[in-house]
Design brief:
Helix content: 10-25%
Number of helices: 1
Distance between the termini: 64 Å
Oligomer: single chain
Length: about 170
Amino acid sequence: MVGNISKKTLHRRNVFLSLTGIFIIIIIAVLLYICRPTQLIVMDMNTEEVLFSQKVEQGERFEVTYIHSVERSPVKEIFEVRGQDIYTMESHTESFGAGMPYTGEEIEMKNGKFIIKDINRKVHGGILRVRPSSVFPHHIKIGKEDLVISDPPYEGRNLEIKVGRTYFER
Protein backbone atom coordinates (compact mmCIF):
# COMPACT_ATOMS: atom_id res chain seq x y z
CA MET A 1 0.00 0.00 0.00
CA VAL A 2 2.80 2.41 0.88
CA GLY A 3 4.57 1.54 -2.38
CA ASN A 4 1.45 2.39 -4.40
CA ILE A 5 1.08 5.78 -2.71
CA SER A 6 4.67 6.76 -3.40
CA LYS A 7 4.43 5.58 -7.04
CA LYS A 8 1.25 7.66 -7.52
CA THR A 9 2.89 10.63 -5.84
CA LEU A 10 5.98 10.31 -8.03
CA HIS A 11 3.82 9.98 -11.15
CA ARG A 12 1.79 13.11 -10.25
CA ARG A 13 4.97 15.03 -9.48
CA ASN A 14 6.52 14.01 -12.83
CA VAL A 15 3.37 15.03 -14.70
CA PHE A 16 3.32 18.35 -12.83
CA LEU A 17 7.00 19.00 -13.60
CA SER A 18 6.49 18.09 -17.27
CA LEU A 19 3.52 20.42 -17.62
CA THR A 20 5.38 23.19 -15.77
CA GLY A 21 8.36 22.77 -18.11
CA ILE A 22 6.14 22.96 -21.20
CA PHE A 23 4.38 26.03 -19.80
CA ILE A 24 7.73 27.77 -19.14
CA ILE A 25 8.94 26.99 -22.68
CA ILE A 26 5.72 28.42 -24.14
CA ILE A 27 6.05 31.59 -22.02
CA ILE A 28 9.69 32.06 -23.11
CA ALA A 29 8.76 31.55 -26.79
CA VAL A 30 5.93 34.09 -26.56
CA LEU A 31 8.18 36.65 -24.82
CA LEU A 32 10.91 36.20 -27.44
CA TYR A 33 8.35 36.68 -30.20
CA ILE A 34 6.82 39.79 -28.61
CA CYS A 35 10.15 41.36 -27.66
CA ARG A 36 11.68 41.20 -31.14
CA PRO A 37 13.22 44.56 -32.01
CA THR A 38 11.18 47.06 -34.00
CA GLN A 39 12.46 47.26 -37.56
CA LEU A 40 12.15 49.74 -40.39
CA ILE A 41 11.30 47.46 -43.30
CA VAL A 42 11.62 48.21 -47.01
CA MET A 43 9.76 45.67 -49.11
CA ASP A 44 8.49 45.12 -52.61
CA MET A 45 4.81 46.08 -52.55
CA ASN A 46 3.83 43.44 -55.13
CA THR A 47 5.85 40.41 -53.99
CA GLU A 48 6.16 41.35 -50.28
CA GLU A 49 9.87 40.48 -50.52
CA VAL A 50 11.79 42.18 -47.71
CA LEU A 51 14.67 44.06 -49.36
CA PHE A 52 16.03 45.83 -46.28
CA SER A 53 15.41 45.84 -42.56
CA GLN A 54 17.09 47.79 -39.78
CA LYS A 55 16.40 48.11 -36.07
CA VAL A 56 14.82 51.44 -35.10
CA GLU A 57 13.94 53.05 -31.81
CA GLN A 58 10.69 54.83 -31.01
CA GLY A 59 10.97 58.48 -32.05
CA GLU A 60 13.82 57.73 -34.46
CA ARG A 61 13.73 59.71 -37.69
CA PHE A 62 14.62 58.78 -41.24
CA GLU A 63 14.52 60.73 -44.48
CA VAL A 64 13.58 60.16 -48.09
CA THR A 65 15.35 62.35 -50.65
CA TYR A 66 14.56 62.65 -54.33
CA ILE A 67 14.16 65.05 -57.24
CA HIS A 68 10.57 66.29 -57.63
CA SER A 69 9.23 64.97 -60.93
CA VAL A 70 7.46 68.21 -61.93
CA GLU A 71 9.57 70.90 -60.27
CA ARG A 72 12.90 69.13 -60.99
CA SER A 73 14.19 70.33 -57.63
CA PRO A 74 15.59 68.36 -54.66
CA VAL A 75 13.21 67.32 -51.91
CA LYS A 76 13.93 65.91 -48.47
CA GLU A 77 11.10 64.56 -46.36
CA ILE A 78 11.72 63.58 -42.75
CA PHE A 79 9.64 60.90 -41.05
CA GLU A 80 9.40 59.65 -37.48
CA VAL A 81 8.73 56.16 -36.10
CA ARG A 82 5.93 56.01 -33.50
CA GLY A 83 4.77 52.57 -32.44
CA GLN A 84 3.96 50.73 -35.66
CA ASP A 85 3.25 54.01 -37.48
CA ILE A 86 5.22 56.52 -39.53
CA TYR A 87 4.62 60.27 -39.22
CA THR A 88 5.65 62.97 -41.69
CA MET A 89 7.55 65.56 -39.65
CA GLU A 90 9.39 67.90 -42.05
CA SER A 91 9.69 68.76 -45.73
CA HIS A 92 12.61 70.61 -47.31
CA THR A 93 11.95 71.87 -50.84
CA GLU A 94 12.72 74.76 -53.15
CA SER A 95 9.07 75.28 -54.10
CA PHE A 96 5.57 74.11 -53.31
CA GLY A 97 5.04 71.78 -56.27
CA ALA A 98 2.28 69.27 -56.82
CA GLY A 99 2.03 66.67 -54.09
CA MET A 100 4.25 68.53 -51.63
CA PRO A 101 3.14 69.09 -48.04
CA TYR A 102 2.46 72.74 -47.39
CA THR A 103 1.09 72.86 -43.87
CA GLY A 104 3.00 72.72 -40.63
CA GLU A 105 3.51 74.63 -37.43
CA GLU A 106 6.59 76.40 -38.69
CA ILE A 107 7.79 77.38 -42.17
CA GLU A 108 11.20 78.96 -42.66
CA MET A 109 13.42 79.80 -45.60
CA LYS A 110 17.02 78.59 -45.30
CA ASN A 111 19.67 78.33 -48.03
CA GLY A 112 17.05 78.83 -50.75
CA LYS A 113 14.79 76.09 -49.43
CA PHE A 114 11.43 76.14 -47.72
CA ILE A 115 11.60 74.07 -44.56
CA ILE A 116 8.23 73.04 -43.22
CA LYS A 117 8.52 71.76 -39.66
CA ASP A 118 6.15 70.08 -37.25
CA ILE A 119 3.92 68.64 -39.97
CA ASN A 120 3.16 65.81 -37.53
CA ARG A 121 0.88 63.92 -39.93
CA LYS A 122 0.42 60.14 -39.76
CA VAL A 123 1.24 58.42 -43.04
CA HIS A 124 -1.95 56.79 -44.34
CA GLY A 125 -2.18 53.22 -43.05
CA GLY A 126 1.24 53.54 -41.39
CA ILE A 127 2.88 52.50 -44.66
CA LEU A 128 4.92 54.86 -46.81
CA ARG A 129 4.67 53.90 -50.49
CA VAL A 130 7.47 54.97 -52.81
CA ARG A 131 8.14 54.49 -56.51
CA PRO A 132 11.86 55.26 -56.96
CA SER A 133 12.81 57.39 -59.94
CA SER A 134 14.68 55.70 -62.74
CA VAL A 135 15.99 59.09 -63.90
CA PHE A 136 17.26 60.71 -60.67
CA PRO A 137 18.84 59.26 -57.52
CA HIS A 138 16.31 58.42 -54.82
CA HIS A 139 17.51 57.76 -51.25
CA ILE A 140 16.31 56.51 -47.89
CA LYS A 141 18.60 57.57 -45.07
CA ILE A 142 18.21 55.85 -41.71
CA GLY A 143 20.94 56.26 -39.14
CA LYS A 144 24.24 55.73 -40.96
CA GLU A 145 22.59 53.77 -43.79
CA ASP A 146 22.00 55.49 -47.13
CA LEU A 147 19.96 53.27 -49.42
CA VAL A 148 19.97 54.33 -53.05
CA ILE A 149 16.56 52.98 -53.96
CA SER A 150 16.90 53.99 -57.61
CA ASP A 151 19.57 51.24 -57.89
CA PRO A 152 19.24 47.43 -57.68
CA PRO A 153 17.64 45.64 -55.93
CA TYR A 154 15.09 48.45 -55.43
CA GLU A 155 14.88 50.01 -58.90
CA GLY A 156 11.72 49.45 -60.92
CA ARG A 157 9.78 48.27 -57.89
CA ASN A 158 6.92 49.81 -55.99
CA LEU A 159 8.22 49.94 -52.43
CA GLU A 160 6.57 49.98 -49.04
CA ILE A 161 8.38 51.38 -46.05
CA LYS A 162 6.84 50.33 -42.78
CA VAL A 163 7.59 49.65 -39.16
CA GLY A 164 7.27 46.09 -37.95
CA ARG A 165 8.95 43.16 -36.35
CA THR A 166 10.90 40.67 -38.40
CA TYR A 167 13.74 38.24 -38.07
CA PHE A 168 15.24 39.43 -41.35
CA GLU A 169 18.65 40.97 -40.73
CA ARG A 170 20.81 42.62 -43.30
